[in-house]
Amino acid sequence: MTLIDKKKEKKTDIWINGKKVGEDILVIAGPCSVEDHETMRKIVRQLKELGVDMLRAGAFKPRTSPYTFQGLKTEGLDIIQELKAEFGIPVSTEILDVRDIEKAYDILDVVQIGSRNMYNYVLLEEVAKMGKPVILKRGFSATVEEWLGSAEYILKEGNGQVILCERGIRTFETTTRNTLDLNSVAYLAENSDLPVIVDPSHGTGLRELVYPMSLAAIAAGAKGLIIEAHIDPDNALSDCRQTIDMETLKKTIDASRKLWRM
Ligand code: PEP
Ligand code: MN
After folding, report:
1. Dist. CA 202 → ligand 1 center (Å)
2. Does the pTM of the predicted model rise above 0.85?
3. CA-CA distance, 198 to 152, in Å (whole number)?
């Protein structure tokens, strides 16, 4: 019996920004990393104007090289807390380490488990116990079955609020940073109760592909998008090549909403 056959328990409703996930398109956007307070204020003000449902911004960054920017860490969480107080925007950030859960608990609305940690089962169990929605990114070499196995680690702790996030997988193709596997999105829309959102930023690594792949994701059955966006993408502290500007974000959101309603 596969995990998909087994997972027939009652579906849990997930609410973000007053919306039930799946009933309306969920739009999450923001910079790859939390940046200084002033830059973040300018970004969040624009995200609010565009009706973005939740801010994404990494305080703890799992970088390939330990010598590149690792995120502002707990100072980043403090900035997120101040932005929430000022703008009332829900926030999702990645937790890399169980030691950061306590501090993050009062600040985060949604916890992100990054691709590199999809197999970190102890972290999954501890994050599940926070009782908050979890965005579970697909490991970049994980099969759908393994991804669902990781989701089960959260579900079995009694936390049904799992949102799967397809963020591309590693293949022989190197033209794009990852290969955005929209097969998984269409497959899971048919075969799982868990909502799937798509990250076209990490899925492609190229900002010019974010718009078309966002639309492709919605067409494939994604319930939402998580997009890296910045007021000055070329100067974003991390992942600038895949980060879109606010104008492109507006165009992407408008077209995705239109497609959603079709
Ligand atoms: C991110 O969303 O900032 C991130 C690091 O993504 P991933 O875990 O998918 O690589
Ligand atoms: Mn990133």
Report:
1. 7
2. yes
3. 20
Ligand 1 centroid distance, CA of 41 (Å): 22
Average pLDDT, the chain: 96
Tens-place pLDDT, residues 157-176: 999 999 999 999 999 999 99
Ligand 1 pocket test, pick from 202, 225, 239 with the greatest ligand atom count within 8 Å of Cβ, gives: 202
Contact 164, 138 (CB under 8 A): yes
| DSSP-based three-state secondary structure for 55 | strand
Residue minimizing CA distance to atom 9 of ligand 1: 115
Instruction: Quote the CA–CA distance of 23 and 43 in Å, as a whole number.
Output: 27
pLDDT tens for each residue of 190-244: 999 999 999 999 999 999 999 999 999 999 999 999 999 999 999 999 999 999 9
Helix/strand/coil for 115? helix
Task: Determine contact, residues 201/239, Cβ cutoff 8 Å.
Answer: yes
Q: How far apart are CA 66 and CA 147, in angstroms?
A: 26
CA distance 248 to 29: 12
Residues with Cβ within 6 A of ligand 1?
A: 32, 58, 62, 114-116, 137, 167, 199, 202
With both helix axes pointing from N to C terminus, report the angle between 74-87 and 37-49 in degrees, rounded to the nearest 10: 40
Which atom of ligand 1 is nearest to 58's Cα? 3
pLDDT in tens, 35-78: 999 999 999 999 999 999 999 999 999 999 999 999 999 999 99
Look up residue 60 and give its DSSP letter. S
176 close to 205: Cβ distance less than 8 angstroms: yes
The DSSP call for residue 143 is -
Nearest ligand to residue 137 Cα: 1
Distance 33 CA to ligand 2 centre (A): 7
